[in-house]
Prior knowledge:
The structure is a homodimer.
Chain A: E1 26-31, E2 47-62, H1 70-81, E3 84-92, H2 100-118, E4 123-128, H3 139-148, H4 155-160, E5 170-175, E6 180-186, E7 199-204, E8 207-208, H5 210-223, E9 239-244, E10 251-252, H6 258-277, E11 285-293, H7 296-308, H8 310-317, H9 323-331, E12 343-346, E13 349-353, H10 361-370, E14 373-379, E15 385-392, H11 396-403
Parallel strand pairs in A: 3-4, 7-9, 8-10, 11-14
Antiparallel strand pairs in A: 1-2, 2-3, 2-9, 5-6, 6-7, 11-15, 12-13, 12-14
Helix pairs in contact in A: 1-2, 2-3, 5-6, 7-9
Amino acid sequence: xxxxxxxxxxxxxxxxxxxxxxxxxxxxxxxxxxxxxxxxxxxxxxxxxxxxxxxxxxxxxxxxxxxxxxxxxxxxxxxxxxxxxxxxxxxxxxxxxxxxxxxxxxxxxxxxxxxxxxxxxxxxxxxxxxxxxxxxxxxxxxxxxxxxxxxxxxxxxxxxxxxxxxxxxxxxxxxxxxxxxxxxxxxxxxxxxxxxxxxxxxxxxxxxxxxxxxxxxxxxxxxxxxxxxxxxxxxxxxxxxxxxxxxxxxxxxxxxxxxxxxxxxxxxxxxxxxxxxxxxxxxxxxxxxxxxxxxxxxxxxxxxxxxxxxxxxxxxxxxxxxxxxxxxxxxxxxxxxxxxxxxxxxxxxxxxxxxxxxxxxxxxxxxxxxxxxxxxxxxxxxxxxxxxxxxxxxxxxxxxxxxxxxx
Amino acid sequence: xxxxxxxxxxxxxxxxxxxxxxxxxxxxxxxxxxxxxxxxxxxxxxxxxxxxxxxxxxxxxxxxxxxxxxxxxxxxxxxxxxxxxxxxxxxxxxxxxxxxxxxxxxxxxxxxxxxxxxxxxxxxxxxxxxxxxxxxxxxxxxxxxxxxxxxxxxxxxxxxxxxxxxxxxxxxxxxxxxxxxxxxxxxxxxxxxxxxxxxxxxxxxxxxxxxxxxxxxxxxxxxxxxxxxxxxxxxxxxxxxxxxxxxxxxxxxxxxxxxxxxxxxxxxxxxxxxxxxxxxxxxxxxxxxxxxxxxxxxxxxxxxxxxxxxxxxxxxxxxxxxxxxxxxxxxxxxxxxxxxxxxxxxxxxxxxxxxxxxxxxxxxxxxxxxxxxxxxxxxxxxxxxxxxxxxxxxxxxxxxxxxxxxx
Lengths: 407, 407
């Protein structure tokens, strides 16, 4: 997770526009289906098609939710039966979840359309938006438009086509010197990390075997997308796809994969950070660092409890250095922490060191008030393992957005 | 949990004032210590003393949080070493948590003062309020005042003395015909049921052996206080005390305890309902009923996921029958539910029956808009076990209350 520290600068998304479309051999196209049921048509593209010029090795991580959307079910079949695919088709505006057999047929139709229009075989599919609305034929118009613009759309335009309540497109890029990794993601609400988070598509031009790619993707997901939370709600559609088309000519195997893993962490870490930064209604990111644990899993448990606590999240919103809530949340993980061994800092300010420390509340208030990112560091004095979690504050706007989402 | 259904009417707290002070041999007194650190003194009593004329069998349930407040630690010692006690001393305005050795001494001092002033030995102690503020001597003035008014204070006045962000005192009473059970509780935020919830004190005049009383208290707690949530935050101070002084002359044992268990469920169920109804910022109670589970634990897991989901809670606030969020939350329990077997109702309206049902959204909106309590019923088609959970909506006021709590 430390990798996240030095990539904060990458979050200036308006500056950094390189992403999936800037990796050798990958083409993006977007189209407008008008998928979301609204009084007047939504004025932006809502279908994305990504195609690789040559077939690409595929790996994926899916939601663990019992209720899986139709595109998740179909893509799981594709990933388990195919080593290589040619592309991805995705839409926003409708999640195609809880839509039964018809939803599955609709997802298949999206894939078949892409295959027919591009003449290439094996596409993955993903959808995001409202759950439970019947899926719509209007997606077909969007796919046609997307295929027509293949190669003409930028990574940011690709990311924008899968936005729902997002306020900015999420794009990241890593230049490995000879190879590259690009990524896009969407997500702002219903974000919780029991697996992936909402949608993220990664492209790379390395040549890599499927099993290794899957292993690396799973590991990096655990330290990036699975270490963030906005609201603790696990989605039915969470999906991460990675496509490796080998066009850089660089072969990655167990012996030399370190640089690739570093790059992937950077890309996925940046996307994860951007998702939290764009958390529904959020005004601040909170970085929860738990240190001094016996195991990484213990540190993760505590960090997650703090990151999920509405009382901590509202205190961050209120710039209130209410450390009692942080310690209470940590204790609720029930791993056996001892009050007398705890050491808690907010930013550089020591608030608790076995007992209440001597600090000036106004100074900490000012730090919280003037910082976009609040660092909460809890040392539990049990061992030397650590874990870092990203969350955002809980604001009135979160409530407003979600009380009014559909109306 | 079905017992909660017929006690909703008891929630008209302004009508039903009978509680702990109305049980034979129990006296309540309250005093004003001015414990909470505020610019101008709080204009209400903040110390409660409960005394039994004869000694009373004791049982208790405490928070499972690793970080336990000083009064919790001290009361745990008392309950484990004594079968019978004479009373309870409690304060609001300061939780006496994360206060180290000094906090423990302060809790002991509260107990000793009560013992000296009443001439009776063995008191339990409980505190609620801000975590981590040094405890204050001002509590002594409050205890003196409370002991002076013993017998003169009503159950509602007793409950009011332990309020923090509560907007009404929580009181309940059961008349067993010959014996009675009274209860009070406090709690509105930092409510989550991994054990008890905040503070609740129960008095009864039955004669019962400690082991049986403890067993019954634990069981009833699991079905009442442990089946509610406001914000998923587990407190450092959660405590339920029950004192049985035997003064009714009625002996309760394994053979005849059914009526006593029923009464206790009614009292604790009513208090639990009142806590959710008074959830910080809440405008509505949501009753989550999960049926058709293989085990009660499975039903509880799913009900809890739905009850904790911010997206479900904001949808309830917005009167939005957004059943996709409910099903997604249920699926996130990962117990293995199958979309095709789900049957979901909101009130009497069927929304999903293996697939989206045919319903009129406006009708459901109107039901939600005009109801103080929203019933969400999910049948998962796996077995015949069920569980019921109470939660409240998530509103802007919750955020406002907790972003500004201390300032």
